[in-house]
Amino acid sequence: MKRMLLGLLAVGLAGPMWADAQATLEYQGTVLTGFDDLTTPDGSVQHSNLTIGPLAGDLVLSGPLAANALNQLVTPVSWNFDSFGSVIPFDSSFFALAHSGAVESTSFSFSTLNGAIIDWSLNLSFGPQFGTNTTGVWRIQSFGPGASGQDLWSSDVGGPSFSDTQRATSVSGSRGWTVQAPELDASPALSAATFLLGCLAVVRGRRSAK
User: Fold this and answer.
1) Res. 189: pLDDT tops 70
2) Does residue 128 have a cis peptide bond before it, meaning omega lies within 30 degrees of 0?
3) What is the maximum alpha-carbon separation in the chain?
4) Can you tell me the distance from the alpha carbon of 56 to that of 29, in angstroms, rounded to the nearest whole number?
5) Is the pLDDT of residue 143 over 80?
6) Pairing status of strand 69-74 against strand 45-52
7) Edge-to-edge, what's the strand order for the sheet holding 176-179?
8) Confidence of residue 127 (pLDDT cuts 50, 70, 90)
9) Distance of CA 182 to the CA centre of its chain
10) Rounded to an integer, what distance in angstroms lies between the CA atom of residue 192 and that of residue 179?
């Protein structure tokens, strides 16, 4: 009976290890093609073809996504995506800091079906930054699973004397999310093991005394 109670106590103490498990998601997409329209100070528009990618990134969540959800908003612990040559890096470290008074925002949303991610989006905005008044709005969207789906890239960056608009969509090819093994906090498990060993030592000591 005593051993059963000690075992239950150890499991209870180790429980937070699983509750604190983080989910790491990695995305690998394909090359995107589209156009780039740059408006110069004289008002003329320079149109060019655009090829970027392949789209790739990763994010760490505090826990797994819901198995069936529509446009579930999440706040990652950390994230990092390819910024396709932008002067502003697409990662949580940059957007967590203040930059010359610029207003920054990020949002992630996921739609899942039976545990599989079917749609997702990343929205970023930055500016206006003092000194340059540069602003930027970026959006990455993905619809449908695997090669049957499509990735979309949208970028609108501008300042007092220019604006740059980019639009691109993915070509056919393998794409999708990979969920890595959860990162577990080992400290509760170590505490539980230490507690259990201590209790066993006390029990054995009492038996020896008898």
Assistant:
1) no
2) yes
3) 97
4) 6
5) yes
6) unpaired
7) 90-91, 78-81, 56-61, 23-28, 176-179
8) confident
9) 14
10) 28
Q: What residue ranges in 40-189 does DSSP mark as E strands?
A: 45-52, 56-61, 69-74, 78-81, 90-91, 104-113, 116-126, 135-143, 150-159, 162-170, 176-179
DSSP per position, 100-135: TT--EEEEEEEEEETTEEEEEEEEEEE-PPTTT--E
Structure tokens at 116: 């599989």
pTM above 0.90? no
Among residues 72, 88, 90, which one has the least CA distance to residue 80?
90
Q: By C-alpha distance, which of 64, 66, 96 is closest to 183?
A: 64
Kindly state the tokens that stand for 186: 């080992």
pLDDT digits over 156-177, tens only? Answer: 998 888 899 999 998 777 788 9
Contact 152, 135 (CB under 8 A): no
pLDDT tens for 34-82 read: 999 999 988 899 999 999 988 899 999 999 999 999 999 999 999 999 8
